[in-house]
Amino acid sequence: MNKLFLKFLTQIFRVFHVKSLTIYQFTLILLIFTATLSVLLESGLWAYTETVRVHQNVKKLKEYTLNKQKVQLKEEVHRVIE
């Protein structure tokens, strides 16, 4: 497995060397790509958790409103009956 990975890295470096890319430039590109990817993943995760939280709050508000309407309806029915 290690030999296969090293062979893969060697081939990648050969491809970039043909394009006259130095190790420093390759590392810089890799670092920028990794940082951008991590920011995008973090943003996506944050947006997903916020969406879930908002949906939970909306669900709780709907339940609260429904329960409040039930109580008001019971009170009105009791008033009409009395």
Average residue pLDDT: 86
The class by helix and strand makeup works out as: mainly alpha
Strand content: under 5%
Radius of gyration: 30 Å
Helix content: over 70%
Tell me the number of strands.
0
The global form is: rod-shaped
Q: Which spans have pLDDT < 50 for at least 5 consecutive residues?
A: none
Report how far the terminal alpha carbons are from each other.
83 Å
Topology order in helix (H) and strand (E) letters: HH
Number of helices: 2
Main pleated sheet: none
Structural account:
The chain is mainly α and 82 residues long. It has two helices and no strands. The model has no long low-confidence stretch (mean pLDDT 86).
Précis, in short:
This protein has 82 residues and is mainly alpha-helical.
What is the element layout, followed by pairings?
Elements: H1 2-18, H2 23-81
List keywords for this structure.
82 residues, mainly alpha, 93% helix, rod-shaped
